[in-house]
Amino acid sequence: MRYISTRGGAEPLSYCETLLEGLAPDGGLAVPEVMPQVDGETLERWRGLSYPDLATEVLGLFATDIPRDDLARMTAAAYADFPGDVVPLRSVGDVTLVGLSEGPTLAFKDMAMQFLGQVVEYALERTGDVLNVLGATSGDTGSAAEHALRGKERISVFMLSPQGRMSAFQRAQMFSLDDENVHNIAVDGVFDDCQNLVKQLAGDLDFKRAQRLGAVNSINLARITAQVVYYFWAWLRATDAGGWAEVSFTVPSGNFGNILSGFYARQMGLPVHRLVLATNENNVLDEFFRTGVYRPRAAAETLATSSPSMDISKASNLERFIFELLDRDAPRVAAAWRELDEQGFFDVASERPRFTEEFGIVSGSSTHADRLATIRDVHESTGELIDPHTADGVKVAREHVESGVPMLVLETAKPQKFAETIREAIGVEVEYSPELQAMLDAPQQVTELPDDAETLRRYIETHALR
Description:
By secondary structure, the chain is α/β, with parallel strands linked by helices. The chain is 45% helix and 14% strand. It has a six-stranded mixed sheet, sandwiched between helices.
């Protein structure tokens, strides 16, 4: 399996080469040269596997340059500290939650990031190189990345976050780490400003090579492929043996990475009826899937909401979907992104009927009032407590439930990460374990920087691994 760029200007790479590269040299994103396919017989063979073993099978279709025994060792290590089935399913009325927040940072990002930590270290050991990871986070990606990569000798992490835009718990998870290879940087701006800085430095090929920069945010293909696994896992547990029943998935989405993994699973042959994209008040993606016009908002127009991990206007992974929508025509994709840079939007409204008819994608949005009402309703009716991002998903999912088609909602985080919103919704204080309380009380280490690429360059040059 080789990987090409969405913009057509890069040589094909192997899986390990791709995950160390980050952005392609032409500014595009890595995508499979040919999407692997899975048939019904294979799905039935996978039905009884443990989560690490299923991950080995699914990831083995993408990471063909990694020997199977090595891959199995890495997936076993990645999910060793997750409890029980790793990804439990539980019913909350007319929808089923897919529990993706059982990892060390209580968020779905752990599902891919724990594997990424293993495979990046493996790839660097093969080459004898080092990697300086430059990433941007709106809340959960940063802590998941840092907890997966902390203490690794060949990796240093530079994580940008929007100053004052994360929950207190999210800040504590990141800023309480004191590992020498972890560098937290709070940028005076919003998430899109952080993401733009990452793209600006990664697009400077001389600087990228000199500083050995890589990426672990959702543009990293290893994260996308690792997330594909839990779509297969959830389908296998929501359907009966020997059947070919379709299910639908609702995915709270900001950067389009999580739902892109579901899109890939569907393209591989998993029987998915609908992929329901759920946004908050920053509903650029909902508007795109309703109109076919993609028009990201300026930083000043990106709202601070009670589901902060989705406070994103410009979705990094949408380019991978556009690549498939435009029939893998790389020049058309490159042209669309030039239009985006030049005029602030691009228009593929002529392709809009294919969103649902061919790709199965529909969308909806949620507000703060919706989140509070949904958290309250789920708690009162089932006793379950859900976080505000998952509440966005449940609210939108309920609008798209169809008779005879199970609706699975991807749980994105534990409610403990958003205590203020839980308190507002149901009037209850979230309880913390002694370990979590100690983290919240620990000293925090963070460097505050302006939204300025040159200042960030100097900081990285001073602290990067060589």
